[in-house]
Specification:
Layout: E1 4-7, H1 11-22, E2 27-31, E3 54-57, H2 64-74, H3 78-85, E4 87-88, E5 93-96, H4 98-111, E6 115-119, E7 133-135, H5 143-153, E8 158-164, E9 167-169, E10 179-180, E11 196-201, H6 203-215, H7 236-241, E12 269-275, E13 282-285, H8 294-301, E14 312-314, E15 317-324, H9 326-329, E16 342-344, H10 354-372, H11 385-394, H12 439-471
Parallel strand pairs: 1-2, 1-7, 2-6, 7-16
Antiparallel strand pairs: 3-5, 4-5, 8-15, 9-13, 9-14, 10-11, 11-12, 12-13
Helix pairs in contact: 1-10, 2-10, 2-12, 3-4
This protein binds flavin-adenine dinucleotide.
Flavin-adenine dinucleotide (FAD) is lined by residues 7-13, 30-33, 38, 40-41, 50-52, 121-122, 136-142, 145, 320, 346-348, 353-354, 357.
């Protein structure tokens, strides 16, 4: 059988190689460390954890990343098996001994008879002779390869650093204060004229908010010190520092909007949120990219009327991150539409985090192996954490009505906002539950029902895959 080439031996590439080899297909894994380093990696080990040693919550019942752990274990993940074998105490989280973990992955991959590891930098797109290949070179992809990807996909399709605006769970926005309306009721293609959520501010509220932004604790940003900000992604606190009126004339301008709860009073400023996923469960804060520390973001953004109880699916940030505009460029099985057979995996596809990167590597590996064996890739159901994350990457993204072509795709951790809603008839109240079934109990029960559904569907999906292979 002809080998599949995997470029990058990080979290995603190591897992992809493992899955391909586990399906009985040979793999050549190209990893540049050993020949050339990155700004963050410190060793030559495969699957090195560049920062924290945590895979986050291991709670598969009420936490989305814990659920992803569980699904990956079911799918025979090398990253999860190595993580479990090198666990260190961390409460409900799965934290690992980083060296023991990376050594284990390196050992297993190098020892697999179907995997060859080649230490070399791949400096351009894989040659045509590699008919099936996976690029998993991560957020710190070497510059010459990044340049080749940019040349293939177009200048607007590759981002080099992230200026991320926070994303809010819709059901935590107070719609008694906020309202739906597009500026000037403008109706874009497929739009309704009510595509944004608007949060109004009085003069006093705006002034207090600007003062809090300026005084708020910011993260250091040494790595890219001196990098000019692109105009479209200036951090909000930098805009605030330019003068008290800057935001009111920028992302917080109140024009073309009427507060339906109080049509007589013109808001002094407005914060807009734009739908972020096709399900309408997540909204991003338009123009609110920020370097504020996480705790400060929660405190300061909850000063905004309507967001007092907001829960954030992700907070804002600014860091080096090479990633492609996957919803536009990739098909449902992670293949580059312009070059079938070439897949992307890991953080470069626009997922975020060790576990998510490895999960997308796992899927890309299985899809490529299926193709090599003459089968159609079997996609995970949307109700699983695998499927929810894959759909975040490969589809379901909205481009705003009034800013055609503007990317709305932002890297994200797995979270419950990415899952389809439960069937309306789903029984939430546990058997024998005493007392009042309150909002908090309901939210927890909803998570439990979502994870139960996910694990059942994941088992079915993996079972189908196994029986399809057996039938071959
Ligand atoms: P990587 O693990 O980076 O693997 C990519 C591999 O490709 C590397 O081994 C690299 O050497 C290799 N490579 C690159 N270019 C080439 C080339 N041209 N030829 C051959 N090989 C190449 N996530 C968390 O969950 N927790 C954190 O604490 C965390 N901290 C982070 C800190 C930093 C500084 C960065 C940049 C990211 C962080 N992330 C964190 C995000 C992300 O989850 C990790 O970067 C994760 O390692 C991504 O997995 P990956 O497999 O996509 O990329």
């Amino acid at each position: 059988i002809k080998p599949i080439h995997v470029v990058g031996g990080g979290l995603a590439g190591s897992e992809a190689a493992w899955q391909i080899a586990s399906a009985g297909v040979p793999v050549i894994l190209h990893e540049m460390r050993g020949v050339r380093g990155t700004d963050a990696h410190k060793t030559d080990g495969l699957a090195e954890l560049v920062c924290s040693n945590s895979f986050r919550s291991d709670d598969a019942e009420t936490n989305a990343v814990g659920l992803l752990h569980a699904e990956m274990r079911l799918a025979g993940s090398l990253i999860m098996a190595s993580g479990d074998a090198h666990q260190v105490p961390a409460g409900g989280a799965l934290a690992v001994d980083r060296d023991g973990f990376s050594d284990a992955v390196t050992r297993e991959v190098e020892a697999h008879p179907l995997i060859s590891v080649v230490r070399e930098e791949i400096s351009g797109l894989p040659p045509e002779s590699w008919d099936l290949a996976i690029i998993a070179t991560g957020p710190l992809t070497a510059p010459s390869l990044a340049e080749a990807i940019r040349a293939e996909t177009g200048a607007d399709a590759l981002a080099f650093f992230d200026a991320i605006a926070p994303i809010v769970h819709f059901d935590t926005i107070d719609m008694q204060k906020a309202w739906f309306q597009s500026r000037y009721d403008k109706v874009g293609p497929g739009g309704t004229g009510k595509d944004y959520i608007n949060c109004p501010m009085s003069k006093a509220e705006y002034e207090a908010f600007i003062a809090a932004l300026i005084a708020g604790d910011k993260t250091e940003f040494k790595q890219w010190e001196g990098t000019p900000y692109f105009d479209g992604c200036l951090p909000i606190e930098i805009m605030a520092e330019r003068g008290p009126e800057t935001l009111r004339h920028g992302p917080m301008k109140p024009v073309g909007l009427t507060n339906e709860h109080d049509p007589e009073t013109k808001p002094y400023a407005v914060v807009q949120l734009r739908q972020d996923n096709a399900l309408g469960t997540l909204y991003n804060m338009v123009g609110f990219q920020t370097k504020l520390k996480y705790g400060e973001q929660g405190r300061i953004f909850r000063m905004i009327p309507g967001l007092e109880n907001a829960e954030f699916a992700r907070l804002g940030g600014l860091h080096r991150n090479t990633y492609i505009n996957s919803p536009v460029l990739l098909d449902g099985s992670l293949q580059l539409k312009s070059r079938p057979g070439l897949r992307f995996a890991g953080q470069i596809t626009g997922c975020e985090g060790y576990v998510e990167s490895a999960a997308i590597g796992l899927l890309a590996g299985r899809f490529a192996a299926a193709e090599r064996l003459g089968n159609a890739p079997s996609l995970p159901p949307a109700t699983t954490a695998f499927g929810a994350l894959l759909n975040h990457i490969t589809g379901g993204h909205l481009v705003s009505d009034d800013e055609p072509g503007k990317r709305s795709f932002q890297p994200m951790n797995v979270n419950f906002g990415l899952f389809p809603p439960l069937d309306p008839g789903t029984k939430l109240k546990p058997e024998g539950f005493e007392g009042r079934f309150r909002g908090k109990d309901k939210a927890l029960a909803r998570k439990r029902a979502t994870t139960r559904r996910a694990l059942a569907d994941c088992r079915k999906w993996l079972g189908h895959e196994a029986s399809a292979q057996a039938a071959e």
